[in-house]
Amino acid sequence: MLGGQLATKYAQALCELAKEKDLLDEVEQELGIVRKTAEQYKDLATLLYHYQVPAEVKKDTIMKIFKADLHDFVLNFLLLLVDKRRINALPDMIDAYTQLANAARNMIEAEIKTAMPLNSQQETALAVKLGKMTGKTVILKTSVDKSLISGVVVKIGDSLIDGSIARRLKSLETALSNTQLTKIGVTS
């Protein structure tokens, strides 16, 4: 089974159990704690994800670091991943879990790129407009990309809406380069 499919299967199982236990939000927050800690401490990430580190060392480390911060439910999930030798897929599982949890809450993430930062009113208006388009509550993930020159690029699910000046200029350049020039007559 491919890594992405595997991560999705584990995330689906975790999400279903979290819904049953009414812990959907808490599990997402705690998985975020695990992700941030592993990203912040590269030695921890190396220990967790390296195939030559014995499972008992990984499990002992997880218990020491996270026992006070995580529900037993999430802690046991991490330990199961170590036992099944799937802990290296944890970042992908967290991403998949977040998407599944958002879907269960009728939410969707939209990646927004603009040439200039949006103010809060612009963000709210964009979220409302995208919410009407999708029928879901939209969570904006904004970033600034000065190469866009002006406009906005929105990626929501599998859809891409590119309203940037950079794309329009590229389209114009392509159109002009494909246009055959004819002899222009000049009269005096």
TrEMBL record:
Subcellular location: Cell membrane; Membrane
Gene Ontology terms: cellular component: plasma membrane; proton-transporting ATP synthase complex
Main location: membrane
Coiled-coil spans in chain: 10-44
Key word Ion transport present: yes
Keyword terms of this UniProt record: ATP synthesis, Cell membrane, CF(1), Coiled coil, Hydrogen ion transport, Hydrolase, Ion transport, Membrane, Transport
InterPro entries the record matches: ATP_synth_OSCP/delta_N_sf, ATPase_OSCP/d_CS, ATPase_OSCP/dsu
GO-annotated molecular function: hydrolase activity; proton-transporting ATP synthase activity, rotational mechanism
Topology of this chain in the membrane: Peripheral membrane protein
Purpose of the protein: This protein is part of the stalk that links CF(0) to CF(1). It either transmits conformational changes from CF(0) to CF(1) or is implicated in proton conduction. F(1)F(0) ATP synthase produces ATP from ADP in the presence of a proton or sodium gradient. F-type ATPases consist of two structural domains, F(1) containing the extramembraneous catalytic core and F(0) containing the membrane proton channel, linked together by a central stalk and a peripheral stalk. During catalysis, ATP synthesis in the catalytic domain of F(1) is coupled via a rotary mechanism of the central stalk subunits to proton translocation.
HAMAP family xrefs: ATP_synth_delta_bact (MF_01416)
Protein family: Belongs to the ATPase delta chain family.
Protein name: ATP synthase subunit delta
Gene: atpH
